[in-house]
Structure prediction request, 581 residues.
Amino acid sequence: MASAYHDLTLAQARELLDQGEVTSRELTQAMLERIEAVDGQVRAYLTVTPELALDMAEAADELLAQGQGGPLTGIPGGIKDVLCTQGVTTTCGSKILENFVPPYDAFLVKQLKEAGMVLLGKHNMDEFAMGSSTENSGFFTTRNPWDLDAIPGGSSGGSAASVAAGTCYFAVGTDTGGSIRQPASHCGVVGFKPTYGRVSRFGLVAFASSLDQAGPFTRTVADAAAVLQVIAGHDPSDSTSAPRKVPDYTAALNQGVQGLKLGVPQEFFATGIEPEVEAAVNKAIAELATQGAEIIEISLPHTEYALPVYYIIAPAEASSNLARYDGVKYGLSLRAENADLMDMYLTTRSQGFGDEVIRRIMLGTYALSAGYYEAYYGKAGQVRTLIKQDFLDAFNQVDAIVGPVAPTPAFDIGQRVDDPLQMYMSDICTLSTNLAGLPGMSLPCGFSGGRPVGLQIIAPHFAEETMLAIGHAYQQATDFHWQRPEI
Amino acid sequence: MKITAQEVAHVAALARLELDPEMTEKLTGQLNEILDAMDKLNELDTSSVPSTNHALELTGAMRPDRVSGGMDHDQALANAPDSDGQSLVVPKVI
Prediction:
């Protein structure tokens, strides 16, 4: 094979390992060298774990030599730093957890390890997954491998940038309002957010519990199916985990789009969308029509309310979830001499959290406080019902929904830092999916000003197979997923 | 104006945050801007709409209590800022 190891897809790496043409140790060493070579520019990793990775690779090689192993045996991947990894620092991109070493693995990390993955390290993110650019990371900003002046998207920006830069074969991130799909779109990779409850949240450090969901980043839709296969499933430790059978996702890939009805929501094109983004998305939809899908214009009339609903519900849940960072049990603890308990709470939290996290805790606390609860949290919950009903109505007519992921390609680093509302607009086409608990995917479909553009596919609850079939059919006919940034 | 600097200081106290005057002023401006954008929701009559707190109606998550393996003291206290080996140690409360 002519191309370098870091240019391969997960499936290609799998094939080389299975044929004995490369060992996991060699592959892992090559990826560690790739990280050494380019991560100084991209800065996708908060922590790299070379010794652990090589140990895991050697264990994988022993299994492979005996003809054993799982779907990910020997495959190097990375994990967003919001997912607990036993014995490996997990910061959530926050100074308040700078030295936190989890005593256990997240359920999905355990699943990945059982499937044989090699852990290369932990990916950078906006602090506590609050942001759309990684600029809110308490440590540093990740850069977009396609254009180092651009943000990679967020909050799972490190994961998306790492897959794009070829510093892992797959990554697992989380999506609360678009945090998998928007960075995938900006970095030209596949980002897959499953149905709420499909993947366990146990060990996923909570931001907004009714919205958070983990999912894979890969170069191809087929690779996303392979990783989803491993992390999907019921976990008795997560009471919101769905007790449903996990279908064969790889088998769903070749179903094709012939006869599928695809809805195009006009509202997704109304929100200041850039012409080149619109053109790329429309061209992708036309390709699906060529392959036999029926394209139907639909309406999701409450789309414009998703932003205010989200920015009440998510901060409200966050203000409650983040109460646990108090300097008592773990994490930063600032205790001045003669200070009492309250002083410790105040100092630790005020100095440990960054500006965006403080802003959202304040917003959430206000929205839940006496006298304002009904007007904000109560109202938002009711409008959330209307947003969900829009989708249920649409899915009476269509099998899936297609449209843009974000109205613009990646913006420049620094461009929106001082304007929270403008920053929040990045997620305008993705927020409603989380509010309704639906699965959504981004896959590369073109460029705008040299920066990648993503196509979004949204399906009914637990219809991940439909999304995979559509995405795979599209990638069989196009080559955006084979293009690599010059880095 | 939806929220005054004084209310911002009150909310900060509820959230166990200590804001300096500069941060209080900046947040007052930003929170007002964000809360103004939230007014959009009042365009909708939701008087007969039930609330959604979870997108999926899952039932049957309850099970009888049972004893299972947990963390020992060393593991549970490994990340503690201060402990005596058995318990977490905190500054005086009163």
Residues 5-42 of chain B form a domain with the Histone, subunit A fold (CATH 1.10.20).
